[in-house]
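Report of the visiting student (M.T.), summer placement. My assignment was to run the structure pipeline on a short list of targets and document each run. The first record concerns DUF1501 domain-containing protein.
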Amino acid sequence: MHFIAPARHTRRAFLRRAGQLAFTGTALPTVMNLAAIGEAAAFDATDYKALVCVFLFGGNDYANTVINYDATSHAQYAAIRGGIAIPRADLAATVLNPAVPLPDGKQYALHPAMTGLANLFNTGAAAVQLNVGPLVVPLTRQQYNSNSASFPRPPKLFSHNDQQSVWMSSAAEGSTTGWGGQVGDLARSSNTNSVLTCVSVAGNTVFLSGDEALSYQVGSGGAVRINCLNGNVYGSPAVRSALVDIAMQTRAHALENEYNLVTARAYGTEGAITSALNAFPANTAPFSGFPANNGLASQLRLVARLIAARNQLGSRRQVFFVSLGGFDLHDNLLNGQAGLMERLSGALTAFYDATVQLGVADKVTAFTASDFGRTLTSNGDGSDHGWGSHHLMVGGAVRGRAFYGKAPPVSVTNSTSDSFDQWHVGQGRLLPSTSVSQYAATLAQWFGVSGGELGQVLPYIGNFNSVDYPGNLGFMA
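After the run finished, the structure tokens were exported:
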């Protein structure tokens, strides 16, 4: 089987290496010309769009998030899951009603705590991508079991840190760039302040690291301040003013000067964000509608405020990262996941409502991601590490009230010779029928990335260009 390996000699990699030559004083004319090519390749946006990655750290349990609801499938699900199955009677308020029913009478419901997201789905503002996960190439179960180099697997399957990195960057832990940052590289020229192209409200993340784009980190209350430059030192404004001068002045030493440039950029950006957010206080509508005591809601409220301040900040294209942890539920799955699902649903519903009130619902798309799905079988009180999972897309540009991808059967196989079950690789671990590359490419193309640039953002996307594995999944308008 032929597959496309990640390109190690892309235009972007060549630019980076040529830039290193320029730093040593050589190859400058070539670099200047290549930089012009790079700028021409990047898109120049005139409208506003934002992608918001909602990462669920720990590996969310797919089977109790998007739950089989039709009587036949639910009975199979309950028989396999045993004590961690959610009763069918508890799902009446979260049944999903797609505009086009699924074949064979198959139905799904969301977790009972996700009434807000169920309503968004049923009113057309959300959709579900079924069974998506990291893949290098399309795989059958026989190919997976063969361990052949002709059918490569994602690196270090079932490992938390590595699969988080594979989701974000197509490579195991240690990768230095992610697809959110690579998208940001292409979008930077559209923004007055390129530093605000990629913004994390959840700490450092490889997802937002590009070759040029930086992951700018903020807290849920706003920009992180450099305290000694923002307040009087020893009660003296003169001392503070002197420190600001020292931190900003041009230095003869190259490294000292670069450090001061970084400090000046951070100081100026913090001031710009703080000033812009003052016009959109957190305690006023639509930002006051976010649920209290919900860390994810606090992060998304800050994202909504930054989007509201987009004109003041000169932003036309932005990629955001927020997160919710606690999903590694090897035990206490029923109680532990219920609270997490309530927080996820409440936060995303409030965020969508805020974008509606801001008039940008069709310009902002939020989507979930997680380390991996989990086993369909129970280990007694929880579930173990899996692979494929179901994910949600929310926004006015999402072709909602629909399921995308292939609905897997409710079954479990531990036999390597079972030719009837192509969907699982043991204990009900889903073998993904849709790759993260396809999922990301669909979002990136809506954002403005051209087909010719996708391979530089997603190194394996070239392996997914068939009817069964299309490069665009169609869930974005």
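The chain has two domains: 50-221+282-463, 223-280. The first helix runs from residue 11 to 23. I thank the supervising group for their guidance throughout the placement.
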